[in-house]
Amino acid sequence: MQNDNSPTWPPRLAVQGGPRFLQIADALQAAVAEGSLKPGDRLLPQRQLAARLGVDLTTITRAYHEAKRRHLLEGRGARGTYVAAPKVELTSILDLSMNTPPPPDGVDFDDLLKQGLAQVLMRADTELLMTYHLGGGSDSDRKAGAKWLEPMFGYLDARQVVVCPGAQAAIAALILALTEPGDVILAEPASYPGLRAAGTQFGRRIIAVEVDKHGMAPTKLDQACRRHKPALIYLNPTLQNPTAITMPERRRKELATIAKRRNVRIVEDDPYWLLADGPPPPIATFAPEQVYYISTLSKCLTPGLRVAFVLIRDPDERERFLVALRSFALMAAPLTAALATQWILDGSADGLMEGVRKEARLRHRMARDILAGRYDGAGDGLHVWLELPGYWSSSQLARAAESEGLAVTPAEAFATGSGCVNAVRISLGSIKDRGRLQAGLQRLSQLLARRPESLGAAVV
């Protein structure tokens, strides 16, 4: 039977502690972790626990369902509900390589998804959800996009917003629409790998421009523009991927001024702006006609929506962009675009994003504590750029980490030129469970403290 003397089980529910069913599931998980509840212990029947905690039966049912999803409980029919034996993981890899949002703190994502889809199906014409949308999104989708971009730009004409199936598609379409084979695209030495992939595929040349502690250096950009006559400049100015640098406002203005003087367009890929703590205005505010601004939902909400918004002010250039986009990615899926629109317009997106933001900051604090002396993050966003001690190379560390059951991303994956920084990117959202993330970071910290020569090679 269960241990009623546990300090965590049954729990005391806090008024401001978030959804009660999650408080119950979290308390059960804590009791299992501390050993006061053990595999095989039988829990109180749901009605009895509901009466003891002063909640309704539905709350307990949802809590037990969540605990089963976490592999904490198992039902045994009429015999009741028991603490489950630990789940055997078939893979020991802890993935610190994929930049995805963490589970939102205090948000029941499953319930949010079900409610959002129910609202979409109730209010929308299902025929329209299953047909082609060639205009860069429906009117409602573009209005939602304009609302999504309000924190960055204030009021926008929704006709200036194009709905795309993700930021990668938007980048590729801009390259096709604005450049020709052989053209030069300027970027920072460590940049989003999707830029290099698209540029190489389309026969464009990616050339790196030197950076300083604030990002791309203005004098170096001016020299590169004079020398290479680029067709585009690619920038990711807020919590840059991978370095996590946020350009200050002055630097953004300087780069915009150079682009205008040299008559070079800028692709401003800004997926993390809404996760940052007080970020400067986008570069697009300083050169509205010069900059194409991309904001994806993949980093702030969830990648599964596959929705990004692109701000293109000139109507002729919007049409050129749409023609390029249709050549390989006809449209965003109407159903997920409608879900994104529903969440943005009814406020659910704000709650979900706040949950992601809170959880991300908690994870940054965890990384700062565990990687003390090596952590140099901003405290927000989804990743940390970890510069390595001289006895490790980034590729060497990535291989050693893999042998330790960790996946990290070496600097080479982001390189647009030679002379790449000796670093790895650590993504804090891809491991869903905080305990497993903590274990992964601790394992990484221990690995960093060792020298490569101390790692014995296995012979099998």
UniProtKB/TrEMBL annotation:
InterPro entries: Aminotransferase_I/II_large, HTH_trans_reg/aminotransferase, PyrdxlP-dep_Trfase, PyrdxlP-dep_Trfase_major, Tscrpt_reg_HTH_GntR, WH-like_DNA-bd_sf, WH_DNA-bd_sf. One of its GO terms (molecular function) is DNA binding. The keyword NADP does not apply. Signal peptide: none annotated. Residues 18-86 form the HTH gntR-type domain. Pfam families: Aminotran_1_2, GntR. Keywords: DNA-binding, Pyridoxal phosphate, Transcription, Transcription regulation. In the C-terminal section; belongs to the class-I pyridoxal-phosphate-dependent aminotransferase family. This is GntR family transcriptional regulator. It comes from Achromobacter aloeverae.
